[in-house]
Every structure is written in C-alpha cells, then in structure tokens.
Amino acid sequence: MDRCPLTRKRRVNTMLNVADSGKSLAALKVGASTTELREFDLPDLPPDAALLKVDVAGVCGTDVSQYKLPLRGAPLIMGHENVGTLAKVGRLFAERKGFKEGDLVFLEHYLPCGHCEWDHMGEYRHCAATEWFYDPKAIRYGYTAIDTVPSLWGGFSHYVYLPLNAVLHRVPDGLSAEEAGIATPMSNGIQWTLLDGGVGFGSTVLIQGPGQQGLCCVMAAKSAGATTIIITGTSKDARRLEVASMLGADVVIDVQRENALERIQQITSGRGVDVTVDCTSGGGPGPMMLAIESAKRRAATLVVQGEGNATFPDFPIGRLTRKGITLKSARGHSYRAVELGLQLLASRRFPLDLLTTHRFGLAEVDYAIKSVGGEGAAGAIHVSVMPWL
Ligand SMILES: [Zn+2]
Ligand SMILES: [Zn+2]
Questions:
Q1: Of the residues 10, 28, 130, 181, which has the maximum number of CB atoms within 10 A of its CB?
Q2: DSSP state of 282
Q3: Are 205 and 193 in contact (CB under 8 A)?
Q4: Hey, which residues does 76 pair with through a beta bridge?
Q5: Measured in angstroms, how far is the CA atom of residue 64 from the centroid of ligand 1?
Q6: pLDDT per position as a tens digit, 204-230
Q7: What is the distance between the alpha carbons of residues 219 and 188, in angstroms, rounded to a whole number?
Q8: Per the omega criterion (within 30 degrees of 0), is the bond before 150 cis?
Q9: 349: CA distance to ligand 1 center in Å?
Q10: Which ligand is nearest to the CA of 165?
C-alpha cells in the first residue's frame, strides 16, 4: 500500500515509549471534510486514569456523515471504535477496573456518569452523560472537541485518555486488534438483530443494507439459528452481497434489479418476515416502506434508524398499526452486546478477513473516511485506521 512520506517518517515514533516522547500525534478534524496532523502533549496521569495506545480505530458510516459537517466548536480528534493496549495505568484505575499495563482492550465510545439506573444495567447508551448531541459537556470518544482537557478523546491518535468512567472490554485471546476492531458493528448486530429484534432459532429476517453493519447482523442472525436470512443492497454493493452469502445469508436481493417485495413474498411463500433490521444509509423512505410491506401479517418487529431521515412525510401509521408491528430503534449497544460480540468474533465461526479490507495510517484518515463513504479505495467493508502504521 502507498504511504505518504509523513506516515513513513512517523514510523520511527513506534520505537519510543510514552515516557520518551511525551507526545501524541493525532489526525485533527479542523473543519468540514478537513484533517490536519497535530501533536499533543500527553497529560500528567492522575492515579484514577489511564492512557490507551491505540492499535486500531475503526471507521464507520457515522464518521462519513459527521466528517462532512462543520465543527460545532473547537477542532476534534475523531475515531470512536477503538482497540488498543493500556500503555500507562494509574494505581486507582488498576485497582477499581481490574486492568493492567499491556492489556489489549476494546474501548466503548460512551463515557457514562457511572451512577444512574441505565449504567447499573450496562446500558451506557441511554445515560444522560453520553448525550453529546444535546449536552455540550457530555464527552463521547470521537465526538468531543480538544478544548475539553486533556484533548485526547478520539482514536485517530497515538494515544487516548481514559478517565475512571471509561468502559473497557478485554479482547479475548486469539483475536487480533484489527479483528477486535469489528467489535462495534458486531455488538450493534447482536443488539439490533437478537436482543432488540428478537431473532432466534427458526426466524425469518430481512436485513437491509450490506455494509459492515448489515453483514454483522447476518452473522448474528446466522449464529442464533435464523432459518431464512434475506439481505438487500444496491448494484454498487455487488461484492458486499457476495460476502453476505459467504457469511451465511440465504437470499441476497439487489433492489435496483429486482422487485424486492415480490421476491420476499415468494421466498416466504407469502407469509412475510418476522423481523427487519435497517442498516441502510441515505435510502430515503424506501427501506421503511419495504420493511412495513414485507413484515408478516401480524406482530412483526422492525428495528429502524433515522440516519438522514429526520422526518417522514406521509408515514403510513395506519398500515403499521393494522399489522400490529412493533417499532424499535437501532441505537448503539449495551455492555452485554459488546461482550457477546467479542465472543462471537473470537469463536472463528466466520471468516473475518472478508470484512477487514483496508488499513490506513494517521496521515490517510481523510482518505480512510472517504473510502467508507464509497469515494476512496474500492471494495471497502471494514476500514481500520492504525495510528502507528
Ligand atoms: Zn461507529
Ligand atoms: Zn449514567
């Protein structure tokens, strides 16, 4: 792979340990679709904090849409799907969290308050302290600006700062950092398909959108014993649909070449599907309409999302209620879903190398994000930023 001279020069830095350099190089978002490399001082570590040396920061569809937006305040270091090695661990942090220097961990992007009812259930995604969109003080990895000290809140950086309320998961033995980088879409896949959607043995499920998220839903449904897994995509998704088949999807549908609803009715002998999960992006109202119409006669569950669909004119609520449909929101994951996701990845039941298609250094963050958005390297499924490349 081509590397720009800047990245190559930085390779030298891998020889230094934390104490030697005292700095963290990071890709900083300084404006809409604009990134610059900048060096930050590493903070003095209090006893109740730790420092994560980032091995892999995954890039996801949310990064693609967020990257295009103007800054909401100061610049920020993006990267919210982080796997790394604990480089420095304060005494209290080690005591309270049970982790030590050298441990390979997956870091959740939520920084919960630690004492609300949701946190006690491992549902950090619902904690008010992680509502970065509404609360300017809420910290979320990959979304928090550098004017919140000590600035290192994103994975597109050599190091990330961990206060005591950081949520860590041990990466199971045998799983590489790059493979563990799939933990976020995998835990979403388990959360949305199994825990929220209720897919299990004998289920018929429709997954819309064959990106890394949809593919992880396929793996979750397959391992739970779903009988019929249908996945949809568009003509540009040909390779992703092929990968979906290899991961266990029973039927793949190109919605631009076939009438998806007719095909689903045919496959299910007119019965329809038990559960649908929406993993599309920029699909407009189409995926929701297909979900409602392909749902079985009564009591299906639709796991939906509103990415790019803030409003829905003429929403067919009558049709929805007549079919007794349950609507649920595809919105992040619980602690348990992450643990299950890591276990599933470590089981080696699925060829993960079909997913881990691209890796880039810090100087290529802009290109890495664009690749996930279909505007950079071809064939991207799961893209890893590896800050020490
Ligand atoms: Zn993400
Ligand atoms: Zn909380």
A1: 181
A2: S
A3: yes
A4: 29, 145
A5: 10
A6: 999 999 999 999 999 999 999 999 999
A7: 11
A8: yes
A9: 23
A10: 2
